[in-house]
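Quick question, first post here. What does this chain look like in 3D?
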Amino acid sequence: MGGNRNEIIQNYFKTLQLELMVASYCERVTQNWRRPLRTDDFNRFYLILGGEGWLQVKRQEYYPVPGQLYFLPSDTPLAYSIISDNTFHKYWCHFSANVGSFHLSHLIDFPYYIEVDDMPYMQHLFEKLTKANQKSGDLTSPLRANTILYEILTYYMDRLPPQAIRLSSSPAISRTNQILQYIEDHLAEPLTPKALAEAFHYSPNYFCRYFKNLFQVTPIEYINKVRIERAKWLLTHSNQSIEKIASQIGLERFYFSNLFKRSTTLSPSEYRLAVRSVTGLEAGLEEG
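> Answer (accepted):
Ran it through. Tokens below.
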């Protein structure tokens, strides 16, 4: 189950869309920097460089210190305030983070801050992010800004213990995660939109519309994408035959080979040879 959980979260990250709204550097926040507990429809990063202050996220209070990076998710109750004349010195930004029609914070839960182990590197990223935001009139500035934003988010998530990133337990999102979990668990079976709809007590037409609205792809497109990713892993990390890999992802060999080539431009055998020639994985593979 843990492996399947990771695959679901990885699929969220693969389709994650980030967009910077604003980024800035603040020498000192003013004495008016305070707000009551409320929610916003955007995310925040705070990179704390100095000073002191107070945050409340949901019911938890925090007193950030220099060297910490805070990720304050959208739709999450947030309050903040100064606590002395030694106010925060920080970089900050607002951004959206969406997977299909969902905010990322609706789909996964994670800690709200990390200890940054390379402050010069992180400060450099935020400096570049701020400059990209200031040059918003440049044709490619959105590309630069969002690329840097992905790098900051990747740094953040990489420094969380894997078990600290959890699938959301909210009832509405739990059903979404159950659907994706069902696909992961039954990948070797002949999955169809009708079978998925029946498993979750939906009509086929409603289920297809519901799924497309959530993930911006049809159920079949998503299932095939998951199958191809699973096949890539098996081709890279095992010596299983092409026939056996095809059966493990619920496909006949001929259809699997055609689908794989349409997705990657390589046949399964060509992909296996190409990956191994680059990574040197010929020895010590798991035998299937």
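DSSP finds eleven helices and twelve strands in the chain.
The first strand starts at residue 16 and ends at 26.
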